[in-house]
Specification:
methyltransferase; SpoU_MeTrfase; 267 residues
Length: 267
């Protein structure tokens, strides 16, 4: 067989690149902004994260050097005020500011079949989502599924609240959450929605032998009706104290602990 002509090879390469881009989309459109020691250090330690520009105070850069993380990109040495001007007034940057490329992320099809997944139903507060990402990284969650719309971007405040968790707990962005839940069900995931009015406590809920998808709704509104209907089971977190409700990031931590204890090998 004759090799393809150069122009044909170029077309094949472009098609392959488009296919790869479609298979592995990015968690953010355009460069992301990361600040604070943990967020920047974890990003520089992640070979999949490509740095673009790093600004650092002398003291902050010295800490990166101590950790052996100063070799990825040359840093511009600045005063703290120069970083202040690039961020919101309440941003705690600890003398580090990094612009980097967005991460390639998995799709619903590439999440491990027996994995542990968090599904976020229109949780819009970047502090809450960032805290959930940090918790998910601690519990070795395989993916966090959320909608491309009605969710905060994987940059800035969210990244700071995640404290480096974005490098370890990938976001899967979908257009329609109900259809994404249906697809997870087709792949064998047990979809369990957290609901304060759930018929049984979470620790008494059967998770099965396949993958686990824990579904969390926004504070106040909870799970939307279609999301509830797409879950295999609804479960509640019983609190023994006077306050019965939890911040959604705290609820995520407890739910992940229960799921890991029920199935330590999940994911």
């Amino acid at each position: 067989m004759r090799p393809p002509k150069p122009d044909k090879r170029a077309r094949q390469a472009r098609r392959a690149a488009k296919k790869a881009q479609k298979t592995f989309p990015r968690d953010h459109d355009g460069p992301v902004v990361l600040y604070g020691h943990h967020s920047v250090a974890e990003a520089l330690a992640n070979p999949r994260r490509k740095p673009i520009r790093l600004l650092a105070t002398e003291n902050a850069l010295a800490k990166l050097k101590e950790a052996g993380l100063d070799g990825r990109i040359a840093a511009g040495i600045v005063r703290p005020g120069e970083i202040d001007r690039l961020l919101t007034p309440d941003a705690v940057h600890q003398g580090l500011y990094l612009e980097a490329e967005a991460l390639e992320i998995p799709t619903l099809e590439t999440i491990p079949a027996g994995g542990l997944v968090l599904v976020l139903d229109q949780i819009t507060d970047p502090h809450n989502v960032g805290a959930i990402v940090r918790t998910a990284a601690a519990f070795a969650v395989d993916a966090i599924v959320t909608t491309a719309r009605h969710s905060p971007e994987a940059t800035g405040v969210l990244a700071k609240a995640a404290s480096g968790g974005l490098e370890h707990a990938p976001l899967v962005l979908v257009q329609n959450l109900a259809r994404a839940l249906e697809r997870l069900g087709e792949r064998g995931f047990r979809r369990v929605g957290l609901d304060s009015e759930g018929p049984a406590p979470l620790d008494e809920t059967m998770f099965g032998d396949g993958g686990i998808a824990l579904v969390l709704g926004a504070e106040g509104r909870g799970l939307r009706q279609l999301t509830r209907e797409t879950c295999d089971a609804l479960a509640r977190l019983d609190m023994p104290g006077a306050i019965k409700s939890l911040n959604v990031s705290n609820a995520a931590a407890i739910a992940l602990h229960v799921a890991r204890r029920a199935r330590p090998a999940a994911g």
